[in-house]
Structures are given as C-alpha cells and as structure tokens.
Amino acid sequence: MSLKEKLRGQVVLIRGSLLVLQVVASYLISPYDTSAKEAYQTSDLPLDGIASLGHGNWDAIYFNYLARNGYDYERFGAFFPLYPYVLSVLSSVLHMPLQSLMTYDSCTILSSVLLNNALFYLNSLLLFKLSTLVGLSELQSYRAALLYSLNPANVFMSVGYSESLFSFFVILGLIVREADSQWYFLCFCFATGVRSNGAALVFFILYDHITCMMNANQVLIVNMICMLVQACACVTPFVWFQNHLFDLYCATDGNVTSEWCDYEMGFSYGYIQSKYWGVGLFKYWQVQQLPNFLLAAPMFLLVGGVLVVWAREHLPWGSGAPNKHFQFTFQFAGYLHLAALTGLALISMHVQVVTRFIVASCPYLFVYCAKLEKPFSRLVLWYFVVYCVVGTVVHSTFYPWT
C-alpha cells in the first residue's frame, strides 16, 4: 500500500472519529450556551435535530442563517457570501428527498457537515500533492497531509464554518501555481468570495510578477498588464460585496441608515467588524483577554519558530544559509504571507481566532512542519492532537474555543 492510499484511509478514520466525538460530547455534556437550539426550526419529523448535534454552534449559526435567509442584518456583513451561497444550493438539493424526514433548517446543518468534511478530506490529499510539488519526499508529504488532517483548528473544518472551502481554494491555487500555470489567480478570486482575508492573496500575484520581471531585468508590458488583471480579479469579490451591502443597507433617498454609508468609498467591512465584533487595532489587548492570548500562544510560538528557523536556513544573512545567493522562490512569498497574517491576528483580531485563521490560510506551515525532526516534531504533533480533540469537545458543547 502506498503512502497516499494509506493517507486516504487515515483521513477518513480521523474524520469519522471526530464526528462521533462531536455527537457523544453533545449528548454527555450540558451546553454552556443553549441559544443554538433556539436558532433553528424544530419539528417532530423523524430525523429532525439529529444533524445539529454539536454542528450548529457559534459562527455556524450565522452561516446557516445566511444560507436560509440572506443578509437581513447589517452585522452579517462580516461574513462573505460564497460559502452561504454554496450551502444554500446544496441544502435546497438535499432537502427535496429529505423533506419528509427533517426541516430545511436541519437540512442546512447536514449540508454544511457533508460539504465541509468532504472538502477537508480533499484538502488533505491536495496538501499531499502541494508538498510533493515543492520538493518534499513522499514520506514528508504524507506527514504534512496527516498533520493537516489533525490540525488544531480541526473542528472548524468539520462544522458550518467557511474555513474548509477557503482552504480548498488556497491550496488548489498554490498547486496550480507550482505547476507553472498563471490561472491560479482564479482560485484566489474564489477564496476572496469565501473570506475577506482572501484579498491578501493578491500579495502572491504581485510577488510572482515582480520577481519575474526582476529575473528578466526589465519591465515587460505583458507582465504588467497580466499582473494588474490578476490582482484586480483577486480583489473584485471583496469590492463587489461591499457595493452589494451598500445597495442593501444604504438608502437611496438621502436617509442614510448607517454611518459607513457616508464613507467616501462606501465600504462597510471595517465599520461592521469594529462596531459589532470588537475588531480593531489593539482593541483586544485587555487584561480580561489574557486567557484567550494563552489559548492562542501555541500557534504564535509555532509560527514564530518556523519563521525564525526558515530564515536562518535560507536567507543570506542567516547563520545556517548554505550560500549568499538568495532565490526569490514562491515559497518565500508563502512565508512572508504567513508572517503578515500572524502579525495582523496579533494586533487587530480576536486573538484566539489565529489558530483557524492560520490553518485555513497558510498551507506552507504544514509543509515546513513535516520536515521537523524529534523532539520538535513530537511537540507539534501533541499540540495538534490535544487541540484537535479538546477543541472538538468544547466547541460541540458551545463552550468558548478558538
């Protein structure tokens, strides 16, 4: 049996085990917050409510609501539309044969579980492919994919969150690029439609074309045009969504309904994140948030360690650099992207979110972790497994987690 075939079986086993753990935990442990039950329509239909056991908590409530009802409230503008739309289509198709067994609300939750777990399985295989393309051995690629399947944000890839779909487009885009195709920007375009930080993927596009022109020692008009087209395509879903929200919430007769409607650009994202979700520069740096900083600390330490060691090994001023001729590889862009997102999470986000934020956005983290040797590889594995299991139990019972 090849390592890739072995990986397929192990990922299925991990997914099945965690789904069972979610159901068992929701049965045995009283929920910290019971609002999830109030967020969904219930009935006496035979299978109604079964799919919601541990799968419809926290932000999943919002995503499932958006899939059913759309953007009724301004605060929902923090959630980008592609995942709710895909979920809505899948739920409608699935509900047709199941309408005598469960309500549409339960069908939406079931759809999110099926979609996300299928994507998570596919993402593990795609990460194996990406790892081989960037030069890892088959064994190291197997380790990278297995670490991904045990990642510390595992539960968010299984329930009704957008991380699995976003991760799919990011990994697929990097694979397409590593295969020397310029069509990778389309994957990044879809990723931006799933989550706002997809717009940050434009960095890969700019880096790719600028380094290409640097290597050619000239500014090529074709490269410039291609770079601008691809970069604009990548951020177009973000701009379109902001305009869509403006049409939804800002009156056309001069009676402005919200402060951001008067903004010159008419962009609501920053305003909504600040007003409704408390997101902003150093807003989370409060004494009462210390437990959340501690919860996020392992991911910050892991990313910091990976970046420092990688820099020492590859940058010309690093003590372990084999030579002084640094190559501007696409992987280097990946590590810059990883550093930027981690810094952003530290200073301007709900800091505990950094775990799933990085896991979904930065697949090169797993590529590097797969090359670690003992005892560091064991420390990383223990961190992943503990957070994977504990996070599944805690999130399923509606207790605060990352």
Set down the secondary structure blueprint.
Elements: H1 3-28, H2 35-38, H3 59-69, H4 82-98, H5 104-133, H6 138-149, H7 154-158, H8 163-178, H9 184-194, H10 202-216, H11 221-249, H12 269-277, H13 290-314, H14 330-348, H15 354-361, H16 364-369, H17 376-396
Please characterize this protein's 3D structure.
The radius of gyration is 22 Å and the shape is globular. The protein has about 400 residues and is mainly alpha-helical. Helix 13 runs antiparallel to helix 14 and helix 14 runs antiparallel to helix 15. The protein has 17 helices and no strands. The mean pLDDT is about 90.
Between the first and last Cα atoms, what is the distance in angstroms? 37 Å
**Helix amount, in percent?**
55-70%
Query: Helix count?
Result: 17
Number of strands: 0
| Integer average pLDDT | 88
Oligomer: single chain
Q: In terms of structural class, how would the helical and strand content be classed?
A: mainly alpha
The ordered string of helix (H) and strand (E) elements is HHHHHHHHHHHHHHHHH
The low-confidence parts are: none
Shape descriptor reads globular
Sheet with most strands: none
Strand content: under 5%
